[in-house]
Amino acid sequence: MVTDPACIVADRCLQLLGGYGYMKEYSFAHLFADTRVLRILAGANEIMKELVARSP
């Protein structure tokens, strides 16, 4: 799924930015929150993998 690599990249960028990554003044804080929400909105990745595996 695409959400896993997006979250990995966001986590690495957060490590790079440090505390600035959490400040709402910076656009990355919004991007980080959006990538975290994508995991929930897109469906649990394990469930999606099972659905793909079951499809003919």
What is the compact description of this entry?
Helix content is 71%, strand content 0%.
Give the biggest sheet. none
Oligomer: single chain
| Rough outline | elongated
Tally the beta strands. Answer: 0
**Could you list the spans in which at least 5 consecutive residues all have pLDDT below 50?**
none
Helix content: over 70%
Given helix and strand content, the structural type is mainly alpha
From the alpha-carbon coordinates, what is the Rg to the nearest angstrom? 14 Å
The total of helices stands at 3
Beta-strand percent range: under 5%
- How many discrete domains? 1
Please report the distance between the alpha carbons of the first and last residues.
Answer: 19 Å
Overall residue-averaged pLDDT value: 80
What is the N-to-C order of secondary-structure elements (H for helix, E for strand)?
HHH
GO molecular function: oxidoreductase activity, acting on the CH-CH group of donors
Pfam family, one: Acyl-CoA_dh_1
Protein name: Acyl-CoA dehydrogenase/oxidase C-terminal domain-containing protein
Keywords: Flavoprotein
